[in-house]
Amino acid sequence: MRRQFSRLAGLLEIADDGFAALRQNLNSYSEEVSEKIADRADELLIDSVSLKALIDSDGTVKEYDELVRGLADGPEAEPNALDRLASGALGLGFRTIGDLKTAMLRDRVRWRRFLVAFWTARQSGAAIPDGISVFYFTLLEALQKGGRDLVLKLYFPSLPLSDADAVPFFHELQRAYDAVSGS
Fold first, then answer.
1. Are 52 and 103 in a shared domain?
2. Residue 62 shares a structural domain with residue 140
């Protein structure tokens, strides 16, 4: 029994060292991304760390997040679901933070109009996470490239297409998209 306990204790120590090294690597990567975000965004592949850096540093994202908070009458909250946002952005063909920033800048006016059209009727008082505007930018892109079906595929894969019509969110999303697209 003592030998088994010693072996397990050794395994736990190895695992603890591995987690400490992983934490250090993640911290180093985060620092590297933070240094590159301003002038070398084209080198940063999209992932949760690079999206967090974009959200923390981009003036337009901050401005549009505040716009949504004002329209929704909601307080600030920490970003969430960044892995899902990264997966959606990659599914839309964006590979780097530079690609995403270029598209956001190109469609800045339409993006803002979409946010206003969607959020004006949604005064929820709920906490609005930093980066919400980036999420809605990718929804706008998905609607443009593939409609509601692409939005469902990228962000709500467990929701059957047949059930989407019963979800008011999708109707509101389509209404806002139609308002800025002239449909």
1. yes
2. yes
